[in-house]
Amino acid sequence: MPIKASKQTIHSYITSDPRICSGEPIIIDIRISVRLIVELENSNKSVDETVAMYPYITHAQV
Question: Which of 6, 17, 26, 54 is the most buried (most CB within 10 A)?
Answer without folding.
Answer: 26
